[in-house]
Structures are given as C-alpha cells and as structure tokens.
Amino acid sequence: MTTAHQGPGGIDEDTADEITRIYELIRRYSRLTVKGLENIPEGKGLLVSNHAGWAGWDFANLYATLRNDAGRDVYTAVHPNWFRWDKISDWARRMGMYEASVSESIRLLDEDNLVLFFPEGERGSFKPFSKRYELERFEPGFARVASASMAPIIPVLIVGGEETHPTVTRLEFTKELLGIGVPLPATLFPLPVKWRIEVLPPVDPGKYMTADNADGDPVEEIRHDAQALMREELDRVLEERGNLFL
After folding, report:
1. For residue range 93-126, what is the model confidence (pLDDT) as tens digits?
2. What is the pTM of this model?
3. In what order do the strands lie in the sheet with 196-199?
4. Domain CATH for 35
5. 115's torsion region: left (phi>0), alpha (psi -120 to 50) or beta?
6. What is the C-alpha radius of gyration for the chain, rounded to an integer number of angstroms?
7. Is residue 7 part of a domain?
C-alpha cells in the first residue's frame, strides 16, 4: 500500500482497512470487472468519475478497487454534509474524505496523492431511473484543480449502480433541511446487476495552457472536454456490456 499523507485529517490506515473489508463484500456482490488500472500513475493523479446509484456503491467499489488492486490510497472531495455530525465527520476524514476545496485538493496532489472527484455532485447520484447514465453537468472544481496543479486527469467510468439502486425521483423539498435533494428509491434491495469500472488513459491539462490557447478559458475547456469524453466512452461501455445480470 502506498503511504499517504498522515498529517491532520490524513488517512488512518486501520480505519481505511476496516472500511475496505466492508466494501470488498459489496464488490463481490457486484461481481465487479475492472479495466484500465494501468492508467493510474504512480504519483499524483486527479480521478474524475461519474456517479452511479443513490446508495454509494459506486464509491465503495472504486475505493476497494484502488486499495486492493491498485495498492493506492485515495482522497475524495465530498459534500459538506459529511461533516455536519462529529462522529460521521471523524470517520469520513480517517478514510480520506475532505470537504471539496481547490486549495486542499492541490495540497494533496502536491504530495503525490490520488484525489477523487465526482463532478456531477449529488445530482448524479440521485437522478431518476429514466435519466440513468445521462451525465449531469460537471461542476468546474476539478478543472480548476487540474489547471492549477497540472495533475493528470484520469477519467473513470462506473456502470451498474443505476440499475442496482434505481431511483424514482429526487425529493427537492429536502434541500432546505438537509442541503441536498433526497432520492426516492424504487427498491431498497440491491438488484444483482453486474458492475463494471473502466479507467481511461490520463489527460494532460498542460495541453490547455499553450500559447495557441492564450485567449481560451482552460478551466471551462477542461470541464467540457472531460464530460464530453466520458459521455462518449460511457455510451461505448453501456453498449459493450450486454446483459445487465451476466
């Protein structure tokens, strides 16, 4: 296991190991297949993934895969709600979660860590089944981090969660109380869908910082191009996977 940052708010390996053992059970139930782990660099890297399903199994499957198969810890930029309650906040920080922040992301990358963004936010997790795998507009935070840190962007595609945990709709009235819209699940039992994770080749953000692009907006171009690439490749993976359950 690659040693990660161990300062204040750093990953506690005992906690991460315990969580990984739980997540490994989810990974086995998901019958997960993985492609492209060779695209994860040895040093710093900015993972950018789609969300898939309301229950968080997308994160669980990816977290277990990175730790058990790639031998890497990962820091994850998350919604502030993770830090509203002390016990949950402490647990989240110990496993590598931090409140989404450009400056903190850059610090972690400067220490050669892997950093994970889900740029769709909760809108991606909680969208209705009728809009499954339709990517919500990416928030630009990851693009700001990429342009400032020059960390390679590593797109990650996750398929299976939208059918495992289908959502009827998102309850918008809960935003005022909880800060997010809450999903209305179609079923509480996880359907036995076979999951897939594919890691795409890294994208160098430096190509957006050239003299030829002096009048461009690199943050917006990175955001747009990453979403367009992932949309195209997600369609390919969905077409290739065939039967949901086999």
Report:
1. 999 999 999 999 999 999 999 999 999 998 888 8
2. 0.91
3. 33-35, 196-199, 153-159, 45-49, 114-117, 75-78, 97-99
4. 3.40.1130.10
5. beta
6. 17
7. no
